[in-house]
Prior knowledge:
The structure is a homodimer of 389-residue chains. The first copy, chain A, is an alpha/beta fold and 389 residues long. Chain A is built from 15 helices and eight strands. In chain A, the strands form two sheets. Chain A has a six-stranded parallel beta sheet, with helices on one face. The interface between A and B is large, with 42 and 42 residues.
Amino acid sequence: MNNFVFQNPTKIIFGKGTVSQLFSEINARGVKRLLLTTGSGSVKTSGLYEKVCSQLTGIEVLELSGITPNPKMESIDIGVNICKKNKVDMILAVGGGSVIDGSKAIAAGAVIDENIWDIAERRIEEIVKAVPLACILTLPATGTEMNGNSVISKWDTREKLSLYGPAIYPVFSILDPELTFSIPKTHTTYGNIDIIIHALEQYFTHTPATPLLDRLTEGLVITMVENSIKVLDVPADYDTRANLMFCGTVANNHWIGVGKEHDWASHNIEHELSALYDVPHGAGLAVIYPNWMKYVMQKDPGKFAQFAERVWSVSRSGRKDIDVAQEGVVKMREFFKRIGAPVTLQDLEIDVNDIPHMAKQATRFGPIGGYCKLNTTDVERILEMCNIS
Amino acid sequence: MNNFVFQNPTKIIFGKGTVSQLFSEINARGVKRLLLTTGSGSVKTSGLYEKVCSQLTGIEVLELSGITPNPKMESIDIGVNICKKNKVDMILAVGGGSVIDGSKAIAAGAVIDENIWDIAERRIEEIVKAVPLACILTLPATGTEMNGNSVISKWDTREKLSLYGPAIYPVFSILDPELTFSIPKTHTTYGNIDIIIHALEQYFTHTPATPLLDRLTEGLVITMVENSIKVLDVPADYDTRANLMFCGTVANNHWIGVGKEHDWASHNIEHELSALYDVPHGAGLAVIYPNWMKYVMQKDPGKFAQFAERVWSVSRSGRKDIDVAQEGVVKMREFFKRIGAPVTLQDLEIDVNDIPHMAKQATRFGPIGGYCKLNTTDVERILEMCNIS
Lengths: 389, 389
């Protein structure tokens, strides 16, 4: 186990009817003027928007709606301008990971003179000041509701970059599983895959002696597999949705990944798919991750065999690790198919001629991945494997 | 899963050589005058005391040493007086759970007019103000390094009570596994049992649909069992000690117990053993907990059978839950014996004639336990079972 520092100050307010606690949380922080950010659609049609507004009595509310999946700088720049002109005390993001990530970029951009994209491009600076941000999560997936990360996009140049820092942890996040009952099957599945892959990006590691972290992650993936299947049949079961939502937070609030090397190469590769084709992040990951596993497991298949045994119940008895590991990948892909995820680039309608460009972009800052350093050729090969069903 | 609120602001600084980060952490908080609290003995003989003092250059340091296991009001009152007279900016507790718990009571007592014991006795008030507290942990066990709990004792009346509140979460805790290499076998074992039972007090619950929390706890107990055995043979192995220390924090920082009913009756009962005989907390728990399990599992043995299967590899195939559950308890007691823990009241040199008094004291505020409400007679019966090897 490696040395680590962990601190996560976000207050999680979880459960049925918790939107009704919004007013007291905001009021306790003395908020007078607030920027309310939303996506495009369901928040207004579902009745949530009215519920939220009814909690904001006596507070001056400014609004920015229409933050899209893979949140774009166009929206972020508008939000930053609103904040700068109006000196808001808090940003309240109501939506999924994209609305929250876009709002984090607004929160950080609102207190600096330069454009937040320039900071993201420098890739070294932590965000240490920002307008306080709070969330009401409507789609469990990214874990952004309890971490200091944000992923933002530039549509004109087809680029996607990350921000990180202590100032963009939400001050509080309201998680009501009932708000997720109406998420369509496809997006439920994409969110669930995102959660599973977040956990695995922190699981496959060369850091020795992390037995507790291994078991926490394996437990999380098993829970996700069981509930990702259940939710397709009974989308409005409270406990199923609650467990999926809670897993989403646990998978990416940094706790299961402390003291070890992570990978995240598949996320880097997927960002190029999303940047070029605007595909849902979870859909891109479903295609890439099993192929990343197959590509990197050859050298040291032991951990992949452990994963196959403990999560997918593959027998190890008398078999080589590599065979066990490969059967694990087959079972994971079968599960992805079962829950309706794409498994090839064709399924995502991605032109294979774009592979060299995407590989080059994914590695433009140098080799990627913690478990295995991948150069441009490695990424090309993985993407070529993604072309095979 | 039940509704919950979770917030844990403690900064964990974990790993080899992390005591060297003490100065920058204290300095960043502008501390000018500090109360350094320690136990009696090993901190000074191990060289840690000098290491800590060398990090406190330029800071006025007051001292309180000799805080004992099951920290007593005598020490706490002295600490409170020092703080009140000298207006300290921070308390730095260097030691195990007792030093830290005692220091939490000092931190809370220092900012109020009445005695902190009176607040503990009222059992309803959260501690919302206190002198900021930081820790250097030397014995993993209670999890107090990352929670807002404290257990304190009054030796003259043989009483033990709890405090809880947001103000007594440590602002930071330094956890260096190397500091634990020299803990004697017996105290290593008691600490490890305490960690396991903390996890289980939150595991056995009637709250339905907590699959992730179940698996997190099972993974933690398996990791504890493996490493509690390893450490006896190789007490100075870094990874073993690191995993035990990390498990101690995970077991009781509230994260694995959110959204569900807990039990804690065994802790209540054990507090009476410690209050009357000053036995180590982990030693008392090793005797009580398996008997609590046997006593309460009859009505609803399913969860106990799950525990037996997943943690102790007891086969469930074709067997009744109650039989599987009972075999799990047998295996747990065998493990306790193997790592040198006491298993009966005789092993603790406790007079069985004190059972009625201890049972009465444990239930003096009413029935105890979340999983199963135990009255005085129930507790007497459990303690009588503790008399059988």
